[in-house]
Structures are given as structure tokens and as C-alpha cells.
């Protein structure tokens, strides 16, 4: 069964999210000031895995861009800050 789940994100460089292994990331928004939420369609019956979400500010250095999949760029704090959200993809 597929449903949409919501995941709170911390405003930190890297974080790990426990999510069913069959998922599709949908969107990220600033739901409250400096409180970011990510939504994904998930298969509730799939075993959980850990994914890594990384956040970069404009002008910040990025390590290993080849292993990153862009999710969302958004303005926060009334347009003062711009954050770029990526999922770290493993290349097995």
C-alpha cells in the first residue's frame, strides 16, 4: 500500500532519514519559520532503509556532487536565505 509520509528536516549539513526502501521524494517546504518538511510517496510494506539528506546554502562548497540528487531549492526567512536540498545517492 502506498501512502504519502511527511518527514521533518533539521537545518543541518547532513541528516539521516529512516524511510521505506520503496519511495519517491515529492517536495520540501518551509512549513513554519526555519522548520522544513519533506514529503514522499512510500510503500508502507517495504523494509526501511536510511537515506541521507544534505543541505547547502548558496556559495557553500559541495563535496562529491556526482553522488547527489537535487530535490529542491527554496527561499527561507522571507527570502533572506536560499537552501539547496539533495539526497546522497550511493553508487554500488
Structural overview:
The structure is a single chain. With 92 residues, the protein is mainly beta. It has one domain (2-88). 0% of the residues lie in helices and 66% in strands. It has strands at 2-9, 14-20, 23-32, 35-43, 48-57, 68-76, 81-88. The strands form two sheets. A four-stranded antiparallel β-sheet has the order 2-5-7-6, with no helix packed on it. It has a three-stranded antiparallel β-sheet with strand order 1-4-3, with no helix packed on it. It is globular, with a radius of gyration of 13 Å. The N and C termini lie far apart (28 Å). The model has no long low-confidence stretch (mean pLDDT 92).
Question: Could you give the topology of this structure?
Answer:
Elements: E1 2-9, E2 14-20, E3 23-32, E4 35-43, E5 48-57, E6 68-76, E7 81-88
Antiparallel strand pairs: 1-4, 2-5, 3-4, 5-7, 6-7
Amino acid at each position: 500500500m502506498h501512502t504519502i509520509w511527511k518527514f521533518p528536516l533539521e537545518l543541518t549539513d547532513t541528516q539521516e532519514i529512516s524511510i521505506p526502501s520503496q519511495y519517491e521524494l515529492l517536495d520540501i517546504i518551509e512549513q513554519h519559520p526555519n522548520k522544513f518538511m519533506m514529503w514522499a510517496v512510500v510503500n508502507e510494506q517495504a523494509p526501511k532503509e536510511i537515506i541521507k539528506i544534505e543541505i547547502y546554502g548558496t556559495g557553500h562548497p559541495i563535496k562529491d556532487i556526482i553522488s547527489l540528487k537535487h530535490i529542491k531549492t527554496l527561499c527561507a526567512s522571507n527570502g533572506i536565505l536560499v537552501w539547496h536540498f539533495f539526497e546522497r545517492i550511493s553508487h554500488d
